[in-house]
Design brief:
By secondary structure, the protein is α/β, with parallel strands linked by helices. 38% of the residues lie in helices and 22% in strands. Bound molecules: 5-O-phosphono-beta-D-ribofuranosylamine. The record marks 143 as: Raises pKa of active site His.
């Protein structure tokens, strides 16, 4: 199964998806890494790996034209499933319906808790005992859609958002390839 990954920044989850795709008897290959941020660090990394990349900023051209171009690049690459990995834009309902049920996202909270930004700050402020990450199917609602898998970590006394984020990120890197593999095999 050919997967396209959308990123906006660092791309550490993208790297873990690529690494898993290169293992033996892999269920998917990464056919394209695309970004709304031409300067995204993850894009340079993907290029170095010899993975096809596509970068386009929506600035100046508007969201419909931007999404149409991303859509075309994904289709040209033969992509069947899209994995959002630190992609910081909300996809339009138009785009989502064209890829109905075939877009996954990883979100750094135990959904349905803490949709949106600053998840770790909010979990700590709430006094939660645990945090984690979720892989879910993307719908037109932010961080909504069926949860396919979750991983938990403890929140320790003295944790700040950065410490908690680092602990959760380790689990993200393990969970996302596992759930994507199960998803493309089902
Ligand atoms: C991750 O924590 C992901 O869950 C969130 O944004 C972060 C992206 O990190 N949506 P990276 O770009 O994958 O390193």
């Amino acid at each position: 199964v050919k997967v396209g990954i959308l990123i906006s920044g660092r791309g550490s989850n993208m790297q873990s998806l690529v690494a898993a795709s290169q293992a033996a008897d892999t269920a998917y290959t990464v056919a394209l890494v695309a970004s709304d941020k031409p300067q995204a660090a993850g894009l340079a990394w993907a290029q170095e790996q010899g993975i096809a990349t596509f970068a386009l900023s929506p600035k100046g051209i508007g969201k419909p034209a931007y999404e149409a171009a991303i859509d075309q690049a994904l289709r040209d690459a033969g992509v069947e499933v899209i994995a959002l990995a630190g992609y910081m834009r909300l996809l339009s309902s138009d785009f989502v319906s064209r890829w109905q049920g075939r877009i996954l996202n990883i979100h750094p909270s135990l959904l349905p808790l803490y949709k949106g930004l600053d998840t770790h700050e909010r979990a700590i402020a709430a006094g939660d005992a645990k945090a984690g990450c979720s892989v879910h199917v993307v719908t037109e609602e932010l961080d909504d859609g069926e949860v396919l898998g979750q991983a938990e970590v403890p929140i320790l006394s003295g944790d700040d958002a950065a410490a908690l984020a680092a602990r959760v990120l380790v689990e993200e890197h393990r969970l996302y390839p596992q759930i994507l593999t199960e998803f493309v095999r089902r």
